[in-house]
Amino acid sequence: MATLEGSSSLLSPSMSPSSTDQSTCPSITALKSLLTTTLRITTTDNRVFIGTFMGTDQLLNIILVNTEEYILGNEASRFVGQVMLPWRLILHVEAFDQQSTSKGNAKDGKSLYI
């Protein structure tokens, strides 16, 4: 068994101070509230992705499932399924709640700019 000399106690990752601070951070809470919400994301190459938000990674890339891809200026769309959108390509993010998607209104009348 390995021991660490000079260390008074070892904290498990779940008990570290930084992990408890992150779970109560307002931005983390806001991001968690968006899980399974429909997002419309516009990218720098004139594409729009509409899909269900499943999460991000450490680099802030966005993961969507059940996604449709649209090209601005073209009415056609295609189903692309699960996609990972790099943060550096994202221009605009809009969150939709379930009731407003048929009306085309953003959640709370606001969109999220990144």
What would you note in describing this structure?
With 114 residues, the chain is mostly beta strands. 13% of the residues lie in helices and 39% in strands. It has two helices and six strands. It has helices at 17-23, 26-33; strands at 38-43, 47-56, 62-71, 77-85, 90-96, 112-113. Strands 4-3-2-1-5-6 form a six-stranded antiparallel beta sheet, with no helix packed on it. A hairpin with a 5-residue loop joins strand 3 and strand 4 (77-85). The longest helix is centred in the N-terminal third of the chain and has 8 residues, at 26-33. The chain starts with 16 loop residues before the first helix and ends with a strand. Residues 1-17 and 101-105 have low confidence and may be disordered.
List the helices and strands and how they pair.
Elements: H1 17-23, H2 26-33, E1 38-43, E2 47-56, E3 62-71, E4 77-85, E5 90-96, E6 112-113
Antiparallel strand pairs: 1-2, 1-5, 2-3, 3-4, 5-6
H/E order of the elements? HHEEEEEE
Arrangement of strands in the largest sheet: 4-3-2-1-5-6
**If you compute it from the alpha carbons, what radius of gyration comes out, rounded to the nearest whole angstrom?**
19 Å
Cα distance spanning the termini = 48 Å
Q: Which class do the helix and strand fractions yield?
A: mainly beta
Shape: globular
Mean pLDDT: 77
Helix % is 10-25%
Beta-strand share of residues = 35-45%
**Total count of helical runs of at least 4 residues:** 2
Q: Low-confidence parts lasting 5 or more residues at pLDDT below 50?
A: 1-17, 101-105
